[in-house]
Amino acid sequence: MNFDIMAIFQIAGIGIITAMIHTLLKSSGKEEYAQWATMVGFVIVLFMVLRLLGDLFQEIKTTFLFQ
Amino acid sequence: MEIIQIVGLGLVAAALVLVLREQKPLFAFLLAAFTGLFIFLYVVGKIDAVLNVLEQLADRSGIPSIYLKTILKIIGIAYIAEFGSQIVRDAGQESIASKIEFAGKILILVLAVPIISVIVETVLGLLPVGS
What we know:
The complex is a heterodimer.
Chain A: H1 6-27, H2 31-63
Helix pairs in contact in A: 1-2
Chain B: H1 2-23, H2 25-61, H3 65-90, H4 94-126
């Protein structure tokens, strides 16, 4: 497997840490910051997923003779 | 024994998804999508060798390469559509998933039209003329 398998654990870790930050910020009464923290974590993970998705589509394009 | 690796990866990812779903369902969905992408990308690299053999066989039997290309494109569309619809179904959007499958079917049909027309022409050529 030439791809980074650690990315799966990274995503899970980002999710758990984001949930923790969200809970902490919420309990200390900073509702908006909690939302922003969640949003930033989501965008980071989304970028990771999208990069892999782009790789996959490129691979499929070359394998199945599109173009 | 790559299958053991893949099954282990799937099990670990499923456990992580279960943990994450309690806290943040959004991240759980992205993690599931990432795992699916990972496995799919791994397998697509393998299928290359099989396609090469298929191409050689088609060359030797004299099948026009346009047919093989069309078939490969159809297989590719089927894989992508299946994959996308399953991810969307994981996210709980059943209607969008079925629309993706519908679009895949339509695109495959469009690609298959030249082959169908060739078949119909062949059959018409076999029929006795002037009846």
